[in-house]
Amino acid sequence: MGEIALMATTGDRFSGRTALVTGGGSGIGRAVALAFAAEGARVVVAGRRPEPLKETVALIEERGGAALAAPADVSRSGDAEALVAAAVDHFGSLDVAVNNAGVFRGGVPLADLPEADWHEQLAVNVTGVHLALQAEIRRMRTQPTGGAIVTVSSNFGVHTTAPGAAAYAATKAAVTALSRGAALDHIRDGVRINVVSPGATATPMSLRAGETDADRAERARATLPLGRVSATEEIAAAVLYLASDAAASVVGTDLLVDSGASL
After folding, report:
1. Cα–Cα nearest to 234, from 18, 69, 31, 36
2. β-bridge partners, 126
3. Who's near 20: CB < 8 A, 6+ residues apart?
4. Looking at the chain, which runs of residues are DSSP E strands?
5. Catalytic residue status for 249
6. Does 54 participate in catalysis according to the annotation?
7. Phi/psi at 126 (nearest 5 deg)?
8. Does residue 10 register a pLDDT over 70?
9. Mean confidence (pLDDT) of the chain
10. 21: which strand partners?
11. Quick one: how many helices (H) and strands (E) in the chain?
C-alpha cells in the first residue's frame, strides 16, 4: 500500500519549499518525510538516532528528492535551535515543520508507572514540542511567506484514552492545547499551526505486548468502527493537507485520523 499511496500523491504542492520533520527516522515521521519529498519539498529529517535518519534520506534520494539528516534531541533548546538553523543554512528557508517526535511509556496502571517514564514522556512529548515550536516560529515569522506547522498529537488525550495510557494521554492533551494556543498567538505573524491526532496506526507503537501484525489486524476488525488501523501514508496525507495552501484558512484545528476509535 505504501508505494501505491506515494505514487498517487506525487505532485508539486511543496515545490521550492523546505519541510522539517522531527521523528523522521521511522513510522509516521518517515511516511510524512517521503510524502513531502514526493510533492517537491526539500526535506530535513530529525531524530535522536542517526542511522534511521540516513535510511529515510536514502529513500528520498532514490526517488530523486533532496533531503538532509539532522540528528537532534528536541527536548534540548540548543538542539531545537540548531535544527532550524541547519535547515535554513542547507536549503535557504523553513517553510513547513512537522513536530512528530514522541515516545510512549506505559502499559501499566498509572500508580505503577516508573517516575523516569513519566519524565521522559514529558521531556520528549511536551517540552520537545514546546521548544521546537519556539525555534520554528521565531524563524518563520521573519520570512515574508511565513510558514505552516503541523504537530502530531494523538487521539489519546483530548479525545479518548485507554488502560495503561494515562500519562501518555496527559502529555498528548498538553501537546494539543499547546499547539492550538500557539496557533492563536502567531497566526498574525504569518505562521499557521494545526494538529493531526492519529489513532492506532500500522507502526510498532500500536502493537500490544507479544502481538503480531496479524493479531493487531484481527483486534482492529473487532474493535475499531472502520475495522482496521490507519496506514502511515494516511496520516501523512492529513499532515500534508494541513500544511498545504488548500488549508490556508484552517488555523488551530485538531484533525482526528483514528479509524473512528473515539466515536
Report:
1. 31
2. none
3. 43, 44, 46, 83, 84, 87, 94, 96, 97, 98, 136
4. 18-22, 42-47, 67-71, 96-99, 147-152, 191-198, 254-257
5. no
6. no
7. -105, -60
8. no
9. 95
10. 45, 98
11. 9, 7
Q: Measure the CA angle with vertex 97, ends 87 and 180; round to 5°.
A: 145
CATH number among 3.90.1150.10, 3.40.50.720, 3.20.20.70, 3.50.50.60, domain 2-257: 3.40.50.720
pLDDT (tens digit, 9 = 90+) per residue, 41-97? 999 999 999 999 999 999 999 999 999 999 999 999 999 999 999 999 999 999 999
Q: Which residue has the cell 521550492?
A: 16
Given the residues 26, 75, 154, 172, select the one marked as catalytic: 172
Give the active site residue among 26, 75, 154, 168.
Answer: 168
Residue 27, Ramachandran bin (φ over 0: left; ψ between -120 and 50: alpha; else beta)? left
Please tell me which residue in 26, 75, 153, 197 is annotated as part of the active site.
Answer: 153
Q: What does the pLDDT look like over 193-241, one tens digit per residue? A: 999 999 999 998 888 888 999 999 999 999 999 999 999 999 999 999 9
Residues with Cβ within 8 Å of 82's Cβ and at least 6 positions away in sequence, in order, are: 72
**Would you kindly state where each structural domain of the chain is located, as residue ranges?**
2-257
CA pair distance 103, 107, nearest whole angstrom? 13
Beta bridge partners of 18: 42
